[in-house]
Structures are given as C-alpha cells and as structure tokens.
Amino acid sequence: MRGLMLLGGACLLSTALQASDCQLLENTDALPERGDIRIRSIDFDASNVFDLNEPGTFWLHRFANYSHIITREDTLQQDLLFAEGDKLSLAELEETERLLRSRRYLREAKVSISHYCSESHQVDVLVESWDNWSLLPKIDFKHEGGVSQYSIGIAEDNLLGTGNQLQLDYAKDSERTGYLLSFASPNMFGSHWSSALQYADNSDGESYLLAVERPFYRISSPWAMGFELEKHKEELREYQRGEESNRYDSKRNWLQSYLGFSLYASTYSAQRLLLGLRLHEQQFASNLDTQNGLPLDRDLSALWLEYQWLQSDYQKLYQINQFNRTEDINFGWQWTLQLARLTDWLGADANGWQLSSRLEKNWTIKPGSWLLTEHHFKQQWQSDEPSRRELSSHWLVVHHLTDQSSLAARFHLELGREMYRDELHQLGGDNGMRAYPLYFQRGQKLWVASGEYRYYTPWSILRLFDVGFAGFVDAGRAWDDPWQSSEASDQLLFGVGGGVRLLSKYSSRGTMVHLDLAKPLRSEPGLDSWQFRAMAKRRF
C-alpha cells in the first residue's frame, strides 16, 4: 500500500513539474522560431447563441438559449485540419478558423494557442465558437415594382448540434408557387464529403436535386470528387418594360461528375487539374400563354478539363458586404480555365468546344480602402452555329470613412453575343436598378453602376436586429435584345433612394432585411414615381 502511495505521489509530482513549464500565450510572436513544436492538446469552448450577461437580455434570449442545442464538440472536431500530436502550423490554425466561420450555424469562430510548454516544445490549442440561432420559422419576403414574393416554412441549420440542415418551405413569387423539402450535410461523419437532397413540387412542375461531393476543402487537399444530378421543370416568363410579354414551359436535365487532383500545393498556393463529364439538356414547350415563340432546344453534353491556380492571402475585414460580422476576404489570385468538348456521342446537338475562365483578385488600395473584382469569360463554338460569347466583370470599391460609416461604389458589366434567348441579362429591381420594376430592361449587353453611403448604427432591436442606413444612386442600361424592339431597352436609366438595413446577426441565415424607397429620374406611362422595396438578402 505504501508503495502504491509513493508511486501515486511520484506521478502527481511528475505531472506538476511537466505542467509548470507551460505558460499562457497571449501572442504567437512569443513562440520560438523552431519547426518541431507539437500540439499537445485541443480544447473546445462552445458558446450558446446569446450572452445572458450582456445588458438588454430578457426572457426571449433566455428561452432561445434554453431551447437551442449547442454545436456538439465532435461536430467541431470533424472540421479541424489538425490533430493532437501534429506538428504546429499557424497557417492550418487560420485555415481551420475560416472553415469553421464558413459554417452557417456558427456566428464566429476563433482558433488560437492558449499555452506553450517550453521544455517539451508543445502547445495547447483552444477552439472557441459562438452559435447562431438555427431553428428558424423561415419568412423571406420581397416587394418591388408592385410584385410581392414570399416564402414561409421552417428550417433547421444545425440539426441536433450536428451541423446538418433540414428545410421545408412554401413559396410564392411572381412566377410560381410550390413546396420545397431539402436536406444537406456539409461534412458527413467527418469525412469531408458533403451531400444535398432536394425535392420541389411547384405549380409549374416538379424538380429534384441529388449532389454528393468531396471538394478541395483545404488548400493542400490532394484530390476531390463530385456527382450532381438535377431535374428542373418550370414555367418561364419574359417581360417588356416590367410587364409580362410571353410564357412557356422549360425542362432542364443536368448530370455532372468530376475527379480532381492536386498538381502542386504549399501553405499559401495550389494548382489543380479536374476532369469531368456533364450531360446538359434544355427543352422548351408552348402552353396556353405562349404568344411570342420559344427559345431553341439544346443539348450541350460534354467532356471537360479544368485547371485551377489559387493563392491564399486572407484578411479578416468588417463592413464590406455586411456589417457587424467577420468577413474573410482573399487577396490572393484565383484563376480557373476550363476547356470542354461538346460531342454528339454524349447527346450534344453538334460537335464543338466551350472555353470558360474565371478570375478573382482583390486589392488593398490604402488603409481603410479596398477593391474587389471578379471576371468571367465564356465562348462556345459548334458546327453550323454562330459563335456564342459572354463576358462579365464586377468591381466593388469600399472606403471606410469612420468605424460607423463607409462609401461603396459598384460597377457591373455584361457583354454577350448570340446568347440563348432564355439567358438574356435582366435589369431592374434587385438586378441593380432599385428605382425600377423587376425585368424593366433586358438584352445581351448590360452595365450598371451604383454609389452608396452606408451608416452602421450602434442600435439593436431587442438584440435581434442590428440597424444600418443607406443612401444610393444607380445608373444602368440593358440593350441588344434580338427578340424585342430596340425602343424597349435602349434608354439610360437613373434612380436615387435610401433605406434601412436590419441584420439578423444571430441567425444562421445571416440575412439582412432591406427596406428601400427609391425614385426613378425619368417619367413615362406605367412607371410609378416611387418604388418601395422590401426584401431579404445577404449583402448590404
């Protein structure tokens, strides 16, 4: 017995001596410059939706916390890009933090080193997370141009704390009504495979979606694989000056499968090669309301090869696209180039080629000012058909005046040639011109520019909605529509307005309610002198 007591005392003394050299670490700059530091332990600190110690909390917040299932530790564990015993990499800690923050059921995440043990050259890592409210009586709405659109239902974005999503909706918009049932898992059993199942029964047809994918979930991922099957049937409508001019039925069948490999990967850059197959069939049919013909049926089934080059240079910013939320913005180059072979033995209408490319790059102009850009290009060649081409470019400049105000300027350009009739660009309402009805202009070419003053107040409504204000001016034009008269889409549009922004900061959807009143700077028959817009979206 005495021997056992001595042995136990020795173990306790050894543990105490081992722990004595482990000190709190407040800054990673204090770590020694050596490459063999290991992760000794990983601790988790998951917080509920509301901090009940903050002033202004009442029974509603207490009930929300009581009825909410906090994200489970194993759910957080499954997203970690490191494990106990691994060699410490600060880049992996930062990448894990971004991955956790991208999960809609988390409002914020932080991955840091809590202790450093100088004798054993080990560290303790702390993973902190703050939950969003995930069980939502879902109410999305939009009203503009005299048209109301809404959806009601229920959505759970963190089912039993597992991160899985379940949703049931009833929706009505300007074109259809219907029911939607969907399930999605962003990380099945910690395998980094994601899945999505969706079924919709709409007034104009049934639709379903099945998708399973293991993406390049981290910059050093060695491979990726994906499969997607979709059938979509709906009634499409065409508009002229915001008024309906034609209807027809559309049926889309889509299947895509791909396999990707990493050609090169380092801490901050990667090059990848993907090979894939897609079956893409689009068919159109007349109905009782068809008055102005139909788009062309088409089959664009193809084999494709894609090259990706990307850099990882993220910064944590605020008040860019939202407010009062952390935004991870990548300032590295991101470029993809895809070459597809349209082939008749897969079902394509004719043999041909498709070339598409995407380029994203963001810059810090000066402290407090940023430029964000995104560009797309696509060209298609098929025998006995004209060459089709699309180019789009998006530019956003944000300048912070103070911690509570900023200026934002946006420019968007779309240039198309020989576009398919059902894919023409639309301008009006939520497509850039807030003082005009939906679908007011359309064409193969479009540009829209906006300037906006944003003010972020310290106000909060019941600690559920953060309040902001915006004043804006919009200008734009859509033109070159081969199926409508030039008079319908060749005039320059201007509009001014202002509104309120209500951010549901603690919601897993992160939506922002826009309440805008805007005035078109022109008058014509049928155009209201003021447009009221009420809608929910994710951007300011």
From TrEMBL:
Domain Bacterial surface antigen (D15): 158-526
Compartments it resides in: Membrane
Sequence intervals crossing the membrane: none
Stretch forming the signal peptide: 1-19
Organism: Alkalimonas mucilaginosa
Main location: membrane
UniProt KW keywords: Membrane, Signal
Designated name of the protein: BamA/TamA family outer membrane protein
